[in-house]
Amino acid sequence: MHPAARVAGVRSGVLRRAAQRGAWAAAGRVPRPGAAVRLERLHTSVRCADSIYALASGPPPCGVSVLRISGAEAALVYAALCPGAPALVPRRAALRTLRHPTTREVLDTALVLFFPRPHSYTGEDVLELHVHGSPAVVRDTLLAVGAVDPAALRPAQPGEFTRRAFEQGRMDLTSCEALDALLRAETSTQRRLALQTGGGRQAQLYHALRADLLEAMVRVEAMLDFSDEDGIDDALWAPVRDTVDRVRTQIRRAMPDGRPAVSEAIAHGTQLVLYGRPNAGKSLLLNRLVRREAAIVSPEAGTTRDVVQAALELHGFRVQLSDTAGLRTGASGIEQQGIARTEAHVRDADLALLVCDAGEVCRELGGVPPCGATQVSARGADALGRLPGDELLLVVNKMDTVRDAPAPVPVDDGVACHVWQVSALHDTGVDALLADLGAMLAARHAADLREPPLVTEARHAHLLGGVLAALDRCVACAEDATLVAEELRHAAYLVGQITGETLGADEVLGAIFARFCIGK
């Protein structure tokens, strides 16, 4: 299409929609200026050409489904679907009959709410339709919304409502990421962490860091503007150096080891692996732990040749539980591959439980160790199939097969060990095992739970690492004001990338918001 024709077509569409809205307003089908609410949108800090709509609640069937429309056409949708209805009062629910905009067929009876810009989730005019949650009602109502004006209304992309909130200044990028974490939270701990990080402490830290860096940069650039030399006077450098040191200290305190302060175990789950000899009862124990048939149980040794995984929640922590192939020598090719995977999973695990047959434990250790913390001989632990690790977590299974087993002879210089006695077959001792594992997780992450961490995203940690590097270079080139100003500017730019104030690449935003569901 010729550019002039394209421009003419766009202008024609805009004029047509404006005339249509004016005709409906004259007929009393949308509120007039000065009435309960003015629905026509005139200006915004960021102009989004299209209005968008989507299902903003869970998939039907359900009791109630929420359909969200955001943009300048929200008024048009209300007028078209509720012809002749009274004006809406902002943020107050009203019962309305929804009709198809062309056929006038009744679609549903719904609660309708209007949130005028800029005091809405997206910062735009937002219309919400709370309809009955049947698949047919939701589908037909969404089709009706799109039919109001196909040139101006389109289905939302994943995360687009939240992206518009970001672009309109309603949220910064750290708040968007915290919201994403909240929507994905599967455990109570993940929920608390997401709410804490989204409460504003992160944003306050990053905004303060950026403000300090910009102030220091302005000081240095002022020196350049009013001095004939590139060097920095000691008296003028002192406050700049103080700012640099303060920012570096704050960043290092927020992520002491250069990584996000919150562990991956909280954010993404603890990796817990069951390993041991074939036929030790690992698969049945996994089923008991997760309270369902997640793994195949067979009396034949070597049945499990690949890693079987299942999730559970312990004391508010998400745990990814893995049942692995039994460890033994002389295994076949396929089984040997499974053993190699077992060893890799144990190396990468947060917790690894060595599951042993009680009879074998009696033979190798001279008895069954008592439950709790103890020590066992290194030779016996190796004979049971222990893989390298800080502490041996030993689950003595099949306790129903031994009677009056003696305790082994105590050792003072052996391997630190924590012992549980269970019978997966009879489901005894399993609850105690779960309780102790939950207590271990709570103890490991007690500091994170007491004081919510400030740096929770790997993206933030990577950018803050760049800030520290820029500030180190800044100190190293302190005699050259031009280089100092440039490093301070770069450091401030990197902090701004965390909050979204200086994002230049649309791919970064796309990657973040693509994680959201369509209705968010």
Automatic annotation (TrEMBL):
Segments forming domain G: 272-360
Top-level division of the source organism's lineage: Eukaryota
Record's GO cellular component terms: mitochondrion
Gene Ontology molecular functions: GTP binding; GTPase activity
Keywords: GTP-binding, Nucleotide-binding, tRNA processing
Gene Ontology biological-process entries: tRNA methylation; tRNA wobble uridine modification
Location of this chain's protein in the cell: Mitochondrion
Gene3D superfamilies: P-loop containing nucleotide triphosphate hydrolases, Probable tRNA modification gtpase trme, domain 1, tRNA modification GTPase MnmE domain 2
Principal localisation: mitochondrion
MnmE helical domain location: 173-517
InterPro entries associated with the record: G_TrmE, GTP-bd, GTP-bd_TrmE_N, GTPase_MnmE, MnmE_dom2, MnmE_helical, P-loop_NTPase, Small_GTP-bd
Residues in GTP-binding protein TrmE N-terminal domain copies: 52-170
CDD domains with a match to the protein in the record: trmE, TrmE_N
Family statement drawn from the similarity comment of this UniProt entry: Belongs to the TRAFAC class TrmE-Era-EngA-EngB-Septin-like GTPase superfamily. TrmE GTPase family.
PANTHER family assigned: TRNA MODIFICATION GTPASE GTPBP3, TRNA MODIFICATION GTPASE GTPBP3, MITOCHONDRIAL
Name of the protein: Mitochondrial splicing system protein
Organism expressing this protein natively: Malassezia brasiliensis
